[in-house]
Amino acid sequence: MYQIARPSRTTKHRSGPVRHDDLSLLEESVRIANPMPDTDHLVGSAAAARVLLMVREQTIGTESPPQTHLQPVRRGRLRSALVFAAAAAVVLATVGILALVRSEPAEVVEEPDLVTTTSLPEITSDDIVYEVRPVAPTEQQPSLAPSLNDVSDLAFAPDGSLWATTGGGVVRWEIASATPTIFTEVDGLLGSPRGIDVAADGTVWVSAEDWVARYDGTWTSYSTFGDIEYVRIPSGAVVARPDGGAWFWADMTPDAGLLHFDGTTWTAVAAPADWLVVDDLWGGTAYSLDAGPDETLWVGSDNGVLTFDGESWTHYTPSNSGLPSLIAPWVAVAPDGAVWVGTEAFEGDEVRAAIEAGGLAAFDGSTWITYTTADGLPADEAKPAVGPDGTVWAMADGEVVRLDGSDWISFAGRGHADGSTVGPDGTLWQPTDGGISGFDGSESITFSVSPDVAPRGVPDLTLIPAAAPVTTATPIGNITWYRFTAPLGPGLFDVTTTPYGLMAVGDGVLRWSDDLLNWQGTILPVEPWRLTADNDGVVRRRDGALWLRRDGDSWVADEILELGDGVGQIVAGDRGTVIVSGLDMFYAPQGRAFVRVEDPPQPPQLAEEWTDGEYFTGCSYRSISIAPSAYLGPVLATDGGFAALTPAHPANWRKRPLCEPVVWASSDGRTWELLSAETPFGSHAVVSDVASHNGRHIAVGSELGRYAIWLSDDAITWTRVERPAEMIDPTAVAGSDEGWIILEDQGAGWVSTDGMEWTRVPDGMPGTRAFYEPQTISIGHGLIAISGTEELAFGVLEE
User: For 533-553, how does the pLDDT look when each residue is reduced to its tens digit (9 = 90+)?
Assistant: First the structure.
């Protein structure tokens, strides 16, 4: 078995590495320039062999992790390099790693509770707002049914079966018997696909962002695409062809366009120049793809409609056709070749001043006809769906309508779903978050996967080494680095260290490994979202948290906290536990019964709108994220209670990274005081990340445009530490008994024994640049874990 040798250690439990973020910012932020790495750090409490997880929804798989990128960064050369490195070094890596033997984790030594002279605040039953409860036995290891009923796209096969892509895999429905056939990673899928299409010969193609798969009796998945270095399929748009091939709309190197597979070879067809760039600005984003009876491909986008006939492109816009609006995301082609296009109102931009009302357009090859509310549509913005018998449906403003001759018949309350399709008999089928729904104009039918037939287990995962192990000498000890290609399907995100090895969340499940290579997993009562880098760990969900405990060789759900609002931080210390939700704060002296903090840190006034001059008030940002509402900055557990960092200027309470932080303090978690209106970090300081361990706090960022490191032993008074001149853009920091580690934006690492003197990790520390998800770093228990979307890097520390 693959074993990692690392020293047994007596674990000291106090406050671990602290990581902070606001979930609403991750979910809904507007990214300006390049997306900043996430500062998603938390504090854990002091119970060994328990894990506190922030989790997402009450049901599993109801949402995928947020993706707020606007323009993908093209990183294909790096992926090719990793593939080459993995192929060249896999034998060396496997042999080298298997030779090591990992010792069992040391028995945890609990420290006695700290004695303080200040008593904890009294909490009465009338004060309690939220309370932790035990996880019931019936909630353990739930089935994949909720994820399998979270449907994203639908397509009919020639035999009349209905295929669905879901949060848990692919489901094939026999309509007559309402019988599902379920396909998951066990059957060869690489995760949860987004788009689906079925060819005339019954071949099924599905697509996810970075992989696709074909089903012709068995599943064949593809995560590399010949010589094309970079491929992302953000919309999941796919058209299956009866020759065994398929077309996809993809962002690729060097340009976006069509990705074609003919059964053996992958080919990229770049979009036309007038679509890619408009007056020196980036052009459109494609959202839908369909094919006509003559094999012409139609692409719906926010820069008009494109067609490709196999040789050349045609670009339809309002200026050269009867298309009512430039914003035309949805296309559907009828059996007779008529093309239906759903558009949105366009109100002009920096280079195009035209105002276009939108509507549902039909094009027969020569004439455009536009339907609007004046013709019976519930709204001008409507999404079309066309059946093989020519039946036309449209979804708008919470209603569906069906074309009957020249009239639209309205059916209120039927929803407004992407991925809808029309069956051979003209029935409209729509995805829902509880299965699929069919409607023929008079009667409805709903299919959902029963928990009795849904799988319960999670397939094991084995990582692929990307390079041979490398040992480097550092001030915190020798580190042996193991690099792995990040799995595309059952992903590993936010990897953290525990007394029993590594733990990660990914694709709605919790995973763990005691040898770095082989990973087990479990489905939790709620979907895991984030982990802390502490002994306890935390996985957040949108409205609560989940405590785990070690049970033999596995982790199981133990206790759950259900909140009504979004959770940004959970911070546990000697004085209790604080939960932050936007600008709201809740406190529990013993970490189990929470009361609302009546007067948490607040800005003196909230600036909901800013002029250009106020937009970057006080700070110079390399890039910036704007949250939809103000949120509280990082909260830190201290020896004396808690501290919170918030922007000095009210206009910056919706911005990330943190600009000119000021310090608030609390001895009991309930009463907060702003210590000074002046920032202790220096004028124009920008803080990207903060970590804490054993009473010491380290912050990284920049000041007056120069990269900076700050240190504090009370979270109140901060001193700027001399930064090595070679350190560029420090974005993540973590600390533990082993020492401190800083990660640069480009992946280089720096270590320190005390947070004051920093040494660059010699050649060998892998860069783990992340392109769509933020990279994270964790250190503790003799291990280092760095996770990114392209690679995973794990370090084993020697004594």
Answer: 434 444 555 567 888 888 888
